[in-house]
Amino acid sequence: MFTPADLPQTIPVFPLPGALLLPRARLPLNIFEPRYLAMLDDTLRTDHRLIGMVQPVIVPEGRDDSADRLHRIGCAGRVTGLHETEDGRYMITLTGVSRFRISEAKDGFTPYMRADVDWSSFERDLGRRETDEDFDRAQFLKVLHRYFEIAQLASDWDSLKEAEEELLVNSLAMLCPFDPEEKQALLEAPTLQTRRETLVTLMEFALRGGSDEGSLQ
Q1: Is the pLDDT at 10 greater than 90, yes or no?
Q2: Is the pTM of this model over 0.85?
Q3: Which segments does the entry list as coiled coil (predicted)?
Q4: Residue 159 has pLDDT above 60, yes or no
């Protein structure tokens, strides 16, 4: 368990479109680019073993500011699993610790990007699992089942019926094939309830074929 005092001011950041990490959730990654292999080697030498996952943004033509290439809010994960393949890749698992806000991106000192980060808005991420008092599991699973059908996704429905609220909502937020901006909206949701509401909205939007008209019941 981390406390606010354990969190470093500067961390390496890994911009990966569509790869969402949330506190207390696990994200498997396949590391093969030389700069990110170097990032992992350096991270494993630290006490915290934290890597910040962030979503890249589209930079307007003519601008090349490093801070503008990334969303300001990301989530740091601790390297909790590592396997090196015969061809030199790393298969790792990150366990989400806390979200952060980028204060300043740093280029030039390493082949990968680092950033000064501010953790102060996300103290709840270091606490216990969140609950959602207004969670209607039956209605949620009804929408989810319809979404999985159109997205041609399979699942173990018995496990979904029994999963804890946070594990269920956060796992689906990470796994569903939403676009990077939608993933960012799920990341920035301040509470489990607002993340669940955002997740349902995105699924209903997909069920309407991307139209804002109408509402599912």
Answers
A1: yes
A2: yes
A3: none
A4: yes
